[in-house]
Design brief:
The strands form 3 sheets. The chain has a 7-stranded mixed sheet with strand order 10-9-8-11-12-14-13, with helices on both faces. Strands 2-3-1-4 form a 4-stranded antiparallel sheet, covered by helices on one side. Strands 5-6-7 form a 3-stranded mixed sheet. With 287 residues, it is an alpha/beta fold. It is globular. Helix 1 packs across helix 2 and helix 7 packs parallel to helix 8. It is built from 8 helices and 14 strands.
C-alpha cells in the first residue's frame, strides 16, 4: 500500500521564513510535499510511510533557528484516500505563464491555454502548484524543445516530461524512484499524449537508471532537492550531450552556491537562474 504520513505543523507567531526553513529541513529528511498556509502559521507535509519515523518531525523542528513555537500532529493517510484528499483540499486548476493549464480529470472550471495538461496526482507530487514545478515548466516554455531529447529525473506525476513532448520533444525519458509515482506518471502520460505516448518512456529507478543513456539528453531536468542533485549531478552530466542544458530546482535561493559548485565540478557551466517565493531554479550547459 502506498501509504504516507500527513504531519500538520503549527507555527506561532506566524512566520513565513520559519515555514520555509521548516520545509527545507523536512525535504532533507525525506518528506516529499508541502502545503504552507498563506499567513505563515502552518505547514502540512507528507512523508512516505517507509521513510517516516516519529523522530523525523522533531528533528526538523530543531533545525529551525528562529524564535517561534512549532507544534505538530501526525496521522497515517492510506494511498487509496489520496485522490479525494487532493480534490477536497489542495488541487485546483491553475494557469502557468499564461500558456499551460493544469487540472485534474474531475475539474470542470478549466482555463483555456495553449497546452492543456491533465494530472490525476494520487500519491505522486508535481501538479504545477509548487513554485519549483512552475519554475521548471517556465524553463521548458522559454527554451527550444522541438526535435530534442529530454530526461526528466524524479518525474513525480510526469508533468514536465509531458509538457516537453507537447512542445515537440522527439523523445523523453522520465525516471521516478517511487513505484507508485512511476505508475501514476504512466497513467498521466496516457491521459495527455494520445498518439504521442510512444515518445515518452517512464522508468522506475534512481540515478543508476541513467546507465543506458550516456550522452543522450539535449535537455536534462531534475526537480528534486539540493542533496540529491549535488550527489547525482556527475551522473546527470554523463547523460547529457556536449552543449546540452541542465535545469534543476527543489532548493532555496541561498542554496545556489552549493549547487553551482557541484555543477562546476561536473563540467557544467552556469547559464542562469530564476526564483519564486524564495525557491530557485538554476540552468547549466555541458562544456
Amino acid at each position: 500500500m502506498n501509504d504516507y504520513y500527513k504531519v500538520e505543523f503549527s507555527v506561532a507567531p506566524a512566520d513565513n521564513d520559519a515555514c520555509d526553513l521548516l520545509a527545507a529541513a523536512l525535504a532533507d529528511a525525506g518528506f516529499e510535499s508541502f502545503e504552507p498556509a498563506d499567513d505563515g502559521s502552518a505547514v502540512t507535509a507528507y512523508c512516505p510511510s517507509a521513510v517516516y519515523t516519529p523522530q523525523l518531525p522533531s528533528d526538523a523542528v530543531a533545525e529551525v533557528p528562529m524564535d517561534v513555537r512549532i507544534e505538530y500532529t501526525a496521522e497515517l493517510v492510506e494511498g487509496r484516500d489520496w485522490n479525494s484528499e487532493w480534490e477536497r483540499n489542495y488541487f485546483k486548476p491553475i494557469l502557468i505563464a499564461g500558456q499551460v493549464a493544469v487540472h485534474s480529470s474531475f475539474h470542470t472550471d478549466v482555463p483555456e491555454a495553449r497546452y492543456d495538461i491533465v494530472i490525476d496526482p494520487r500519491m505522486a507530487f508535481g501538479t504545477g502548484h509548487h513554485a519549483t514545478t512552475t519554475l521548471m515548466m517556465q524553463s521548458l516554455l522559454d527554451e527550444p524543445v522541438e526535435g530534442l531529447k529530454v530526461i526528466d529525473m524524479g518525474t513525480g506525476t510526469g508533468i514536465l516530461a509531458i509538457l516537453a513532448v507537447m512542445r515537440g520533444a522527439a523523445q523523453a525519458v522520465a525516471i521516478e524512484i517511487d513505484p507508485f509515482a512511476a505508475a501514476n506518471a504512466r497513467d498521466n502520460v496516457a491521459l495527455n499524449l494520445d498518439g504521442k505516448a510512444d515518445a515518452l518512456t517512464v522508468i522506475e529507478g534512481d540515478a543508476s537508471a541513467l546507465a543506458p543513456y550516456d550522452a543522450f539528453a539535449d535537455i536534462f531536468l531534475a526537480n528534486i532537492n539540493r542533496n540529491i542533485i549535488t550527489a547525482d549531478i556527475d551522473r546527470y552530466a554523463r547523460a547529457m550531450k556536449q552543449g546540452a542544458r541542465l535545469t534543476v530546482s527543489g532548493f532555496y535561493v541561498e542554496d545556489r552556491p552549493v549547487v553551482a559548485e557541484a555543477a562546476a565540478k561536473a563540467g557544467l557551466e552556469f547559464t542562469g537562474a530564476a526564483e519564486m517565493d524564495r525557491w530557485s531554479s538554476m540552468s547549466f550547459r555541458k562544456l
